[in-house]
Amino acid sequence: MRVTLIFGGNQGDRKALINEAIKEMSDIGKIELCSSLYETAPWGFESSNSFYNQVVTYTTDLSPESVLDKCQEVEKKLGRVRSGAQFCSRTMDIDILFCDTQIINTPRLTVPHPRMALRNFVLAPLNEIMPDFVHPVTHKTISELFTESPDTLKAEKQLIP
């Protein structure tokens, strides 16, 4: 299975934390595609710290639930504290965007990610590495979703070595 993840955070050394999370997640399988790093203002709440985000696809033999377990383990290892607030500052957030073209809707996991088409910080890096991928629910390409996005926040590609 090809699983597509987004890594993000706005606390601490954001770039180093994302690099560490990507490395830790390679336990699930081989990295296939990796977007550039993007910077955006917080989405859904106010903070003086902007977010860095990056999208990575892995090939894995694990189940989607096992991938979710690994995501939560890595988040915790990198200092994520769940406050109960849905939108808040954090050292690391790892979300599953796609598991091939599967549609999953369980109490623990919804794939494709239900709010991805509303967020440029997700769509910009996705559009960079998989613009022609067809979203299995909307039946639109990532490029189409990005063009139609209602999000007014800019996702700025970072030219960081």
Overall description:
- It is a single chain.
- The protein is of the alpha+beta class and 161 residues long.
- It is built from four helices and eight strands; from the N terminus they run βαβββαβββααβ.
- The protein has helices at 14-25, 64-77, 120-129, 142-148; strands at 2-9, 29-34, 38-40, 51-60, 93-99, 104-105, 110-111, 156-157.
- Strands 1, 2, 3, 4, 5 and 8 form a six-stranded antiparallel sheet that branches. It has a two-stranded antiparallel ribbon with strand order 6-7.
- It is globular and about 35 Å long.
- It starts with a strand and ends with a strand.
Characteristic terms for this protein:
six-stranded antiparallel β-sheet, two-stranded antiparallel ribbon, 4 helices, alpha+beta, 161 residues
Largest sheet, strands/sense/barrel? 6 strands, antiparallel
- The rough form would be described as globular
Question: Compute the gyration radius: what is it?
Answer: 15 Å
Give the low-confidence spans. none
SSE ordering: EHEEEHEEEHHE
